[in-house]
Amino acid sequence: MSTPPFGRCAAAMITPFSADGGLDLSGAQRLATHLVDRAGCDALVLSGTTGESPTTTDVEKTALVRAVVDAVGDRAKVVAGVGTADTRHTVALAEAAEKAGAHGLLVVTPYYSRPTQEAIVTHLRTVADATELPVMLYDIPVRTGEGTALTADSLRRLAEHPRVVAVKECSGDLLKSGLVMGDTELAYYSGSEELNLPLLALGAVGCVSTVANVAGRQVRGVLDAFAAGDTALAASRHRALLPLVEAVMHGVPGTVSVKALFQAAGLPGGPVRPPLLPADEALTERLTTALRAALTEPTPV
């Protein structure tokens, strides 16, 4: 695919809240502008895992899309997370996101009720039929539950839908990813930071990155080096980011880590919503140390 449908370096953007836990739309606009204009991100994914979608309301999700689109305009793709365990609810969120100006939809496989592959495919097709927006499938079985990983056959079937154009790959199954990339035109985005470079080597077009919230230039630098054919530099940059990836993404949810770093730096983010708990002082110090080390690497121009 010559032109990635949702950019190459997509930040899985946190959802900023005010001190009292309310939605901070002005903070979201400031953060979105920073990520696009200064951090090298050409897409923003809202209301995903990092965006605390389980604890934001439908009204908040739609307001967030509208605010971020107003802030970044056409300078970046704005992808709205709309996936739920309920097909009708997901369709309603998709329709609201389209009206709010989203450029695309992120749709996670339905969770908890453990639908069959046929039911999952039907759910995702129904959502794709509901709007004119392109769809990124979100395959993350570690969160959606046993049996919900999209099979290679299901992905091939979904690729036949004209609006299903991409996959956010978080299943960790490189064999499946490689097979589906070889058989379809689906644009693959790495959703697991440590697999960004391996998936690029298989044919992925980019990543949806939590770490890009705090180190967007460094994440983008891996993609740029690989695209330029300098695989040694890409590998060096990828390895240099891994300590930060480990600190941010392993042990606590990435949302907790990013918001702790933002609070330490005085950036918009605010608290996490329960049941998540904020980072303690020791974790914040470890995160700050890891980020400082990552940012001392040469920054891509």
Automatic annotation (TrEMBL):
InterPro entries: Aldolase_TIM, DapA, DapA-like, Schiff_base-form_aldolases_CS. Homotetramer; dimer of dimers. Pathway: Amino-acid biosynthesis; L-lysine biosynthesis via DAP pathway; (S)-tetrahydrodipicolinate from L-aspartate: step 3/4. Keywords: Amino-acid biosynthesis, Cytoplasm, Diaminopimelate biosynthesis, Lyase, Lysine biosynthesis, Schiff base. The record marks 49, 112 as: Part of a proton relay during catalysis. It comes from Streptomyces millisiae. The active site is at 138 (proton donor/acceptor), 168 (schiff-base intermediate with substrate). The gene is dapA. It is found in: Cytoplasm. It holds the Pfam family DHDPS. Belongs to the DapA family. Its EC number is 4.3.3.7. It comes from the Bacteria. Catalyzes the condensation of (S)-aspartate-beta-semialdehyde [(S)-ASA] and pyruvate to 4-hydroxy-tetrahydrodipicolinate (HTPA). It is an enzyme of class 4 (lyase). One of its GO terms (molecular function) is 4-hydroxy-tetrahydrodipicolinate synthase activity. This is 4-hydroxy-tetrahydrodipicolinate synthase. It catalyses: L-aspartate 4-semialdehyde + pyruvate = (2S,4S)-4-hydroxy-2,3,4,5-tetrahydrodipicolinate + H2O + H(+).
